[in-house]
Amino acid sequence: MKKGKKLYEGKAKIIYASPEKNLVIQHFKDDATAFNNQKKATIDGKGILNNRISEYILQNLNQIGIKNHLVKRINMREQLIKFVEIIPIEFIVRNIATGSLTKRLGIEEGTVLNHPLIEYCLKNDKLGDPLISREHILTFEWLNVIELDWIYNECKRINDFLQGMFRAVGIKLVDFKVEFGLTHESGKTQIILADEISPDTCRLWDSITDKKLDKDRFRKDLGDLIPAYTEVAK
Ligand code: UDP
Question: Alpha-carbon distance 51 to 129, whole Å?
Fold first, then answer.
């Protein structure tokens, strides 16, 4: 498929125009960033693994009725996706306490939560993606109550599915981040799941050893990121 001009370049992905109406091409780079862009590296092959893993997950979510932007994977690094207007909120779902949750609230690392916890962060690099509440989202009209409740439920469904899927292959789904976007087709606006779901956006621990199989290998300089992502892909 012929790639059009570059429309947007983010930290780990590039979006190009495509010849098809309302569709764009998402390219997975090998770049890794952490701590609000303060730590950067290129990890050969990461984009290929994330493209494949995200394709698999989004395809499966589609099969259980979770509408998302994936049309098809085109090649090792690229997917054809629906063009969406990204909602500037990161939806974080947590099953086990780690990362910023433990630092912010002093919750003990590894605490298994009684219920999945959903948190919201404003997507704004300059502000360091601050944690926001449901009230902020409604007050500033980033979403209305129906949209927010719908996304909240969708996050729970995604979590239930992913937790079961990973559990079956000996992996704990500790937490993850998802993003949603708006599509405008035939005069109708719809919210769908967008972006990617991969070891870059999830925390995944081996069920028996708690070995980290995700981007924490980069954040914490643990090394062997590619073997860990490959294990997830397998
Ligand atoms: N996450 C992400 N992108 C972000 C922030 C978080 O994909 O910009 C994911 C992260 O990989 C983890 C979850 O969201 O799976 C929760 O992240 P946390 O808030 O603990 O982030 P930390 O600041 O510890 O990286």
Answer: 24
Structure tokens at 201: 């956006």
Q: In the prediction, which pLDDT does 89 show?
A: 98
CA 177 to ligand 1: nearest atom: 14
Express each pLDDT in 93-115 by its tens digit: 999 999 999 999 999 999 999 99
**Distances 162 to 30, 54, 115, 136, 157 between C-alpha atoms, Å:** 24, 12, 15, 28, 9
pTM of the entire predicted model = 0.97
| H helix or E strand, kind and range, residue 14 | strand 13-17
Q: What residues flank ligand 1, with Cβ below 6 Å?
A: 90, 92, 99-101, 129, 175-177, 201-203, 215
Query: Atom of ligand 1 at shortest distance to CA of 176?
Result: 15
